[in-house]
Amino acid sequence: MTSNKPLLQKMAETTDTDYWNDSCAISELEYAIPRGAVGATTNPVIVLNVLKKEYDLWEDRILEIIKENPKFDEDEVSWQLIEEMAVKGAELLYPVFEREGGLKGRISIQTNAKYYRNAQKISDQAVRFSKLAPNMQVKIPATAAGIEAMEEATYQGVSINATVCFNVPQAVAVGEAVDRGLKRREAEGKDTSTMSPVCTIMVGRLDDWLKIVANKEGIIINPAFLDRAGVAAMKKAVKIYKDRGYKTRMLAAAYRNQLHWSELIGGNIIHTIPYKWQVRYNSSDVEIKDTVNEEEDPAMIEELSRKFEDFKKAYEPYGIKIEDFDAFGATARTMRGFIGGYNQLVDIIRDLMIPNPDV
C-alpha cells in the first residue's frame, strides 16, 4: 500500500536522515514541523528575507524594541530582533526537543558574520546565544578563527553548527575541533549527553564556485559534473566522519537541484531545506532509498580534480590548511554575502529609527 505521507516525512521515519526548515519564518515552521522537520536554522540573509516576508508580524515589535531601549544603536536593535526571531522559532520546536531528549528540536542562530576573524568574540557570542533558550544551536563559520572558536564554545557547553563550510578539509577540521572541546569538557566531569553538534557543507555553493571558475578560466567539462561536486564532497565527508567516529553529524545545505537531496539520503545526516524545496521534494516521485553511501563516479572525481585545483583541494581531507580556509573562493563569496545581508537588515532598522523626512 502506497503511503500518502510527504516524502520528507517518509525519509525521516524510514531512514537515519533528518531534515530541518532552512528558516525561522513562522509560516514555514508551521508547514515543516508537522511534516517531520526536527530543527531550523537562520543566518543574516535568512533573517532579512523573513523580515521582508513577515514584516507585518515584526514591525510593531521592532518599534517597541526601539522605544524600550533608548540608548540602543541600530546594530543593537538588529541583534535584539535576530535573537527574538530565533527564540520564537525555538518555542515552536520545543515539543520536538522534549520528545527527542534534547538531541533534536533545536534552532540555529548565527554569530555575527563580521567576527569571522576573531575567535574570542565568536565564542563569547556563541555562549550568550546558547542561553537564549534550552534548544538553541549556534552557527559558527568554518574560518580559521571559527575553528578555534568551535572548540572553545563546545567546551563551554554550546551545541555548535559549523557554517560557511564547503569542503572536506573544513569538515574534518570541524570534527576534530568539536571532539577536542568535548574531551576537555568530559575531562572536567561536565555533561555532554544532550549536546548535538553538526557540521554543514553548503553543497550548492561549492557547485556555484566551480561554475564561476569554469566561466572565468574557460574550462570545458561535462556540466552534469558541476552539479555533483558538492554531493561528492558531502559523501566523502560523511564517510570520513563515520570511519573516524566524530561526534558531530554532517548536514547538507544550499540546494540548487534535486541531487542535493536525493543523492544524500540514508546516512546519519541532516538536511536543512528551504520551504520552496520542501514543497518540491514532497510532491516529487523520488524514491526514498540509501544513496549517501553510493560511491560517486571515479571518472568524474578524476576529471574535476584534474581541471579544478579548487575541487582537488576541497575533496582531499587535508587539501587546504586551516589558515587558508578564509581565502577559499566559496568562503569569501559567502562571507561577503552574509555581511551584506546583515547590512541590509540594519538599513531596514535604521529607516524605522530615523524615518526619512524627504519621503
Mean pLDDT score, rounded?
96
Spatial order of the strands in the main sheet?
1-8-7-6-5-4-3-2
Low-confidence stretches: none
- Overall helicity: 55-70%
SSE topology string: HEHEHHHEHEHEHEHHHEHEHHHH
- In terms of DSSP E residues, the strand content is 5-15%
Q: What's the quaternary structure here? A: single chain
> Biggest β-sheet: count, sense, barrel?
8 strands, parallel
Tally of strands:
8
Number of domains: 1
Helix-strand makeup class: alpha/beta
Q: Gap between N and C termini, in Å?
A: 61 Å
The name CATH uses for the topology is TIM Barrel
Topology:
Layout: H1 7-14, E1 18-21, H2 26-32, E2 39-41, H3 44-53, H4 55-68, H5 74-99, E3 106-110, H6 119-130, E4 136-141, H7 144-155, E5 160-163, H8 168-187, E6 198-202, H9 203-217, H10 223-226, H11 229-244, E7 249-253, H12 259-262, E8 270-273, H13 275-282, H14 298-307, H15 309-315, H16 329-353
Parallel strand pairs: 1-8, 2-3, 3-4, 4-5, 5-6, 6-7, 7-8
Helix pairs in contact: 3-4, 3-16, 5-16, 6-7, 7-8, 8-11, 9-11, 14-15
Relevant terms:
359 residues; alpha/beta; 8-stranded parallel β-sheet; 16 helices; 8 strands; 10% strand
Describe the structure.
Helix 6 (119-130) links the parallel strand 3 (106-110) and strand 4 (136-141). Helices cover 55% and strands 10% of the residues. With 359 residues, the protein is of the alpha/beta class. The model has no long low-confidence stretch (mean pLDDT 96). Strands 1-8-7-6-5-4-3-2 form an eight-stranded parallel β-sheet.
